[in-house]
Design goal:
The structure is a homodimer of 231-residue chains. With 231 residues, the first copy, chain A, is mainly α. Chain A has eleven helices and no strands. The N and C termini of chain A lie far apart (42 Å). The first copy, chain A, binds a DNA duplex (18 and 18 nucleotides) through helix 1 and helix 3.
Chain lengths: 231, 231
DNA sequence: GTCTATATATTGATAGAC
DNA sequence: GTCTATCAATATATAGAC
C-alpha cells in the first residue's frame, strides 16, 4: 500500500488563505539536514500531541528542539508543513498492525497478536496515538479523506476476513466493525488516557507493569468474548 | 458526594502569572444573567471540546454565542473561568453512571446497565466526552488532583464491589480496574472518535443506528467476557 | 545555516462612551 | 449591559546581517 499523503486545508479559521502561496524551498537532502528535521519532528510530536494543531506554537516546538524559531522555520517554512509530515508518517505506522491481520492464519493467534501489537504501540508510541486522537477530537479536518478512503477500505477488507471466520464457525458471530472498534478503543486508551490510568491505579499498580496487566486482561476479555467455548 | 471544584493553574505557559489577581465581579444572579451564561457555556463547550483549552479562542466562543467579545467577557472576565465551569459540571455528570453501580444489585443487570448508561452518555453528550478527552490528552493539567483524589477513590470503591462479586463466583475472576477501563474506553470511543466511526461505517451503517449496533455488540462482548458460562 | 531584528496578525483583556 | 476602540502580549513568518 502506498504511503498516505495528507493535504492541509488552508482554511484553519477562515482567514489567512492568501498566505497559502509560498515560494518553494528546495528539498532537504544532506545528512545533517535530515537529522535537523528529525530533531524538529521529534519535538513537534511532543507539542502537537499534547496541544493539538492550534494549541501548539512554533515557539514551544523550537524550544523543545533546542533551536531558534527562525532556524526551525528554515527547515519547515510553515507550521502546517511540520504537522502534515507528522500526520503522514503516523498514519502509515499506525495502521500497520491491522494490515498484518492475516486471513490465512488461525483466528486465535491472529486476533490475539493483533491486540498485543496494538497495545505495544500504545506503550511504545503514546505520542503518535495522542496525535491521532487529537486530530479525531477536532473532527479530523485534515485526514477525513484518508478515513473515508484508505482506512475504510482497509477496515472493510479486514471485516470481511473476520466475517469469513464467523461463517466457518471459528469465532463467535458478532459485528466485525464494532469488534475492530473495541480493540482500537481498549488498546489506545492506555496511551490517550495514560494520566487517568496511572492516577487511578496509583503508585503501586500504575508503574510499567500496567501494560502487562492490561495485556492479560484484554486477551482474556476478547478470547472469552470472541471465541466459541464450552467451559 | 460534594460537587467537584476545579482549580486552574495559572502557569499555562510559564508566563502571565501576574495577571492572576483580578478585581472580583459580583456573582451573577438575575434570570437573564443566568441565561446569558448558559448560552456562553453552551458555545464554549462546542469550541473547547474541539480545540482544547489553548486552541480555543474567545473570538470563536463569542461568535458561536452570538455576542461580541467584550460582552462575553462581561459575564466571564477570563477565558479560564469558562473552562473551569465547564470542567466542574462535566466531571460531576460524567461520573454519575459509575456512582450508581450498586453493590447490592445483581451483577448481570448492574454491569449491563452501566455499559448502557455510559454509551448513552456518548450518544447524548459527545461534546462533554471530547472535552474530557482533550483534557486527558494534555496530561490533565487542571484536573489531575481530581483524578488522583475523588476519581481514584470512587474507582477503588467500585473495584471492590466487582471483586466481591468475583469472590462470590458471580462474575469471572479478572482485573476489576482494567474491566472498568475497558468499559470506559469502548463506550467513550463512540463520542471521541465519532468521525472515524462514521467514516468507516459509511453512509449505510454510520447513521443513528450505529449506537444500537454498538450497544448490542458491547453487551455481547462484556457478557461473554465477564460472566461465567457453560455454553 | 544561524542569528537579531522586525513585520504583521491574532489573542486575551480593558477603557470608556452610550 | 452592550458597544467601539484600543492595549499589551503572543503568534506566524520574513528580512537581512554574518
Amino acid at each position: 500500500m502506498p504511503p498516505i499523503k495528507v493535504k492541509m486545508l488552508d482554511s484553519e479559521n477562515g482567514k489567512g488563505a492568501a498566505k497559502a502561496a509560498r515560494k518553494p524551498r528546495p528539498r532537504a537532502q544532506t545528512r545533517i539536514q535530515r537529522e535537523k528535521q528529525d530533531v524538529i519532528l521529534e519535538a513537534a510530536l511532543d507539542v502537537f500531541s499534547r496541544e493539538g494543531f492550534r494549541g501548539a506554537t512554533i515557539d514551544q516546538i523550537a524550544e523543545a528542539a533546542g533551536m531558534s524559531k527562525p532556524n526551525l522555520l528554515y527547515y519547515f517554512p510553515r507550521k502546517e508543513e511540520i504537522y502534515k509530515r507528522l500526520m503522514t508518517s503516523m498514519l502509515d505506522v499506525w495502521l500497520t498492525p491491522l494490515r498484518e491481520l492475516d486471513s490465512v492464519g488461525d483466528p486465535v493467534p491472529e486476533i490475539r497478536s493483533y491486540i498485543r501489537r496494538k497495545l505495544e504501540m500504545s506503550r511504545d508510541f503514546p505520542r503518535q496515538s495522542r496525535l491521532f486522537a487529537n486530530e479525531m477530537l477536532q473532527g479530523a479536518p485534515r485526514i477525513l479523506d484518508v478515513l473515508e478512503g484508505d482506512l475504510k477500505q482497509l477496515v472493510d477488507e479486514k471485516a470481511g476476513v473476520l466475517e469469513g471466520w464467523m461463517q466457518q464457525g471459528k469465532i463467535v458471530r458478532t459485528d466485525p466493525y464494532h469488534l475492530i472498534f473495541s480493540i482500537w478503543a481498549t488498546t489506545q486508551h492506555y496511551a490517550d488516557f495514560d494520566v487517568q490510568v496511572r492516577a487511578v491505579l496509583g503508585k503501586d499498580r500504575g508503574g510499567e507493569g500496567r501494560f502487562e496487566d492490561a495485556a492479560r486482561f484484554l486477551e482474556n476479555l476478547f478470547m472469552r468474548g470472541v471465541f466459541p467455548h464450552k467451559d
